[in-house]
Amino acid sequence: MNFALAFLPLESISALYVVLFLLPVLSSVFLPVPEEVALLIAGYLAYLGFVNFWAVLVVMFLGVIAGDIVGYFLGRYFGDWLSQNIINRVPFAAHLLGKAKHYFDRYGERVVLFSRPLLSIRMIVPMMAGHFRMNLAKFLFYDVLISIVWVGAVVSVSYFLGSGLDLITEVREIKHAVFAIIGLIIIFYAVIRFIKNNKNAGLV
């Protein structure tokens, strides 16, 4: 954590807020820094007194939403080009993209809500929403809902655990526990749906 702080403009509060805002925005265009890192740093800076806790919550929330809007419009205007390149280079890509579109058209709201804690999925969901022409107002409605919870939770965890010597370890353990619970819920839901579908088809 201290290593990360060495690269931040701690001497200027205004510049610090700007940098914190830009981190989640840049992560939406595949900056190799997950937004969790930016949120954890923001909470830790609030604990150290460099920034105001409530102000940094708002800044990080706006940064996350701005980043998702960037991703949405990247998908909307460049999604066709990107999809065609993937189809030309990856076997079965057309079939997989077709299934992804069908699933997104049917469960788009759930995808936006439940993908936020899942790093590998979260980064492409805004682009998928734009590419598959999900209504922008609907996308933002669900994105804002989950982002309020997500940003508030991650920044608060870092803020309230800031006094611990093993901050990153503690947060990582909590995050892994949350991921494990989410994974079990998804697996349970998938198994139930599989059994139900096979039963309806007369296979069970």
TrEMBL record:
Kindly give the InterPro entries that the UniProt entry links to this protein: DedA_domain, VTT_dom
One Pfam family, short name: VTT_dom
Membrane-crossing residue ranges in chain numbering: 12-33, 45-74, 139-162, 174-195
GO CC entries? plasma membrane
Subcellular location(s) per record: Cell membrane
Entry membrane topology: Multi-pass membrane protein
Q: Which residues form the VTT domain?
A: 33-159
Q: Which domain of life is it from?
A: Bacteria
From the Swiss-Prot or TrEMBL record, give the protein name.
DedA family protein
State the organism of origin: Candidatus Sungiibacteriota bacterium
